[in-house]
């Protein structure tokens, strides 16, 4: 049901991760040119892929699809809470993979005489997603407690 607040939180997480899948996460500039780190590859500024980052891309894709699927399991609130925990683990894994690939890319370019690097705003989207997943799990648990209290009254 889309009118529940947790459904909106989960939809927002799904949208955030979809943006993070296709937006650049970081950039590197050096003597060899300018490179951008995306979820699925490290690319030259023109668009040609230099190195594949498939593990991070798969994590981002799963983190995008799971909250969307979780929205439609509104009758099974305990399963929704478990899937929110799984989503949180996926988001933490995506953050770790971002750090690993950023460090590996930095090591490649740090040996150049002219070297600059930076983050894009989209690198922080999994952190924002973690906050919204936590809010969604909290709202789902609140609904579950309301249903249990109503069952006790009957």
Describe the structure.
The structure is a single chain. The longest helix is centred in the middle third of the chain and has 33 residues, at 77-109. A five-stranded antiparallel β-sheet has the order 4-3-2-1-5, with helices on one face. α1 (5-22) runs antiparallel to α4 and α2 (54-71) runs antiparallel to α3. The protein is of the alpha+beta class. The two termini are 25 Å apart. The chain is built from four helices and five strands; from the N terminus they run αββββααβα.
Q: Could you name the ranges where pLDDT drops below 50 across 5 or more consecutive residues? A: none
Strand content: 5-15%
Count of helical regions: 4
Summarize the helix and strand pattern as letters. Answer: HEEEEHHEH
Q: Over all CA atoms, what is the radius of gyration?
A: 19 Å
Largest sheet: 5 strands, antiparallel
Distance between the termini: 25 Å
Give the overall pLDDT as a whole number: 87
Summarize the structure.
With 154 residues, the chain is of the alpha+beta class.
Main features:
five-stranded antiparallel beta sheet, alpha+beta, 154 residues
What does the secondary structure layout of this molecule look like, with pairings?
Layout: H1 5-22, E1 26-30, E2 33-37, E3 41-44, E4 49-52, H2 54-71, H3 77-109, E5 115-119, H4 125-153
Antiparallel strand pairs: 1-2, 1-5, 2-3, 3-4
């Amino acid at each position: 049901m889309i009118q529940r607040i947790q459904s909106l939180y989960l939809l927002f997480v799904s949208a955030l991760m979809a943006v993070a899948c296709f937006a650049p996460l970081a950039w590197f500039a050096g003597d060899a040119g300018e490179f951008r780190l995306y979820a699925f590859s490290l690319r030259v500024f023109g668009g040609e892929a230099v190195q594949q980052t498939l593990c991070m891309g798969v994590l981002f894709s799963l983190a995008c699809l799971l909250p969307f699927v979780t929205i439609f399991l509104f009758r099974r609130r305990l399963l929704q809470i478990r899937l929110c925990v799984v989503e949180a683990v996926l988001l933490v894994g995506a953050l770790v993979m971002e750090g690993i690939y950023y460090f590996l890319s930095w090591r490649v370019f740090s040996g150049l005489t002219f070297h600059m690097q930076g983050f894009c705003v989209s690198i922080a989207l999994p952190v924002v997603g973690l906050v919204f997943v936590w809010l969604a799990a909290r709202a789902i648990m609140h609904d579950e407690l309301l249903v249990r209290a109503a069952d006790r009254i009957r």
